[in-house]
C-alpha cells in the first residue's frame, strides 16, 4: 500500500529524538524544555479535588466559564487589555493545539506567512498543511534580533500572517519597544494578522518587560495570542493553554478547535481557575528562572562554551566554536553519548542548514542538576 505523505520531509521531532537519546545513555537531559521539579502541591491538590468531586465530564468547547473569566481578569490587570470571556478566550490543549487551530483558521492555499528563524518547530508544517507558504527571515546573531527592513521587503499582497514568539524559543531573545513600533508601522493599514506565541510570557529577566500583543490595541485587534499553563505552572505534561483573540478571529479559531479537540480537561480547568488567584505563582516566575539562568551561567563559566545573550524563556544558547567544528546536530549527539549532557541543535529550527556552532540548553532544572551538568560541560 502506498501512503502519500502530507509532510514528506518531516521526521520525528528533535525533542523526542534527544530525550530518547538522553534516556538511552543516562545523560542529564537539558534538551527538551521541561522542569525536573514538580508543580506546586496546592495545584495538584486542586486538580485531585475536582476529579474527586465529579468534575469529570466534557467542559464547554470554549473552556469552563470561570477559567475564562479569571484569564480575562488577569490579562486586564497585567496587560491593561480587555478580552470578553464569552467571545474572545478559548482554552486549548496546550499552546500546540492553539497554534495549529490559529494557523488553520486563517491560512488559505497560497497565503504567505512570515516566520523568524530559528523558528519553533510547530509553525512551518502547519502552514504547509493548510496550503500556505512559509516565508523565512533569519534573526540576527548574537542577540537574535529582527531585521525589520527584511520584514518590510518580504511583505507581498499574499502576506496573511506574521508569527512572533517572545520570549523566544530557542534563543531567549525578547521583543523590545522598538520592535513593537516597527511592527505597528509595517501592519498599519494592512490586513496582515499576527499570531503571537507568548508561552514564556512570565519568564523574562533583567528588568525587561514582556511586550505582549495584548498591550498594544492597534496590534491586539489583529492578533491571536497563545499562552501555555505548562510553562507558567511547571505542568508541561498537562497540555493546557489558551488563545486570546478579538471575537471575529475567535469565531474562526473555535471552528477549528472544536474539531481538533472539542474541549480540554475539565477538572484541570477548574483547578487552574482557582490557582490563578495566586498571583505570586506567575509574578515571581521571572526572578525564579533568572536565578536558574545565572546558576547555569556560573556552573559553565570555566568551560570553553560561550554564552549568548538570554533575556527570557528557559533556554540558554551556548557557542561551542572553541571546542569543535562539527555541525550542531552531530555535536549534540556526541555530547549526549560521550559527555552525558543532552541539548538541542538549533539548526533543526532552520529550513536550510545553518552552520552556527551553537546548542540550546534548558535550565528549568534543580540547582543540583545544573551543577552536575556544569561539571560535565567544564570537563570538555
Ligand atoms: N510554543 C513554544 C515557543 C514552545 O516552546 C512550546 C513548548 N515548549 C509550545 C509552543 C507548546 O506548548 P504546549 O506544551 O503548551 O503545547
Ligand atoms: N517546547 C518544548 C521545547 O522547546 C518541547 C515541546 C515538545 O516536546 N514538543 O523543548
Quick recap of the structure?
This protein is of the alpha/beta class and 380 residues long. The protein has helices at 14-24, 41-52, 65-79, 94-106, 124-129, 148-154, 177-187, 217-220, 229-232, 247-260, 266-275, 280-283, 285-299, 328-339, 367-378; strands at residues 28-29, 89-92, 112-117, 133-138, 159-165, 193-197, 223-228, 241-244, 306-307, 315-319, 341-342, 358-362.
Question: What does this entry look like structurally?
Answer:
The model has no long low-confidence stretch (mean pLDDT 97). The longest helix is centred in the first third of the chain and has 15 residues, at 65-79. This protein has a 7-stranded mixed beta sheet with strand order 2-8-7-6-5-3-4, with helices on both faces. Helix 3 runs parallel beside helix 11 (266-275). Helices cover 39% and strands 14% of the residues. It contains 15 helices and 12 strands. The protein folds into 2 domains: 14-32 and 284-378, Aspartate Aminotransferase, domain 1; 42-278, Type I PLP-dependent aspartate aminotransferase-like (Major domain) (Aspartate Aminotransferase, domain 2). By secondary structure, the chain is α/β, with parallel strands linked by helices. Residues 13, 15, 32-33, 169 line the site of glutamine.
Topology:
Elements: H1 14-24, E1 28-29, H2 41-52, H3 65-79, E2 89-92, H4 94-106, E3 112-117, H5 124-129, E4 133-138, H6 148-154, E5 159-165, H7 177-187, E6 193-197, H8 217-220, E7 223-228, H9 229-232, E8 241-244, H10 247-260, H11 266-275, H12 280-283, H13 285-299, E9 306-307, E10 315-319, H14 328-339, E11 341-342, E12 358-362, H15 367-378
Helix pairs in contact: 2-11, 3-11, 4-10, 13-15
Bound molecules: 4'-deoxy-4'-aminopyridoxal-5'-phosphate and glutamine (GLN).
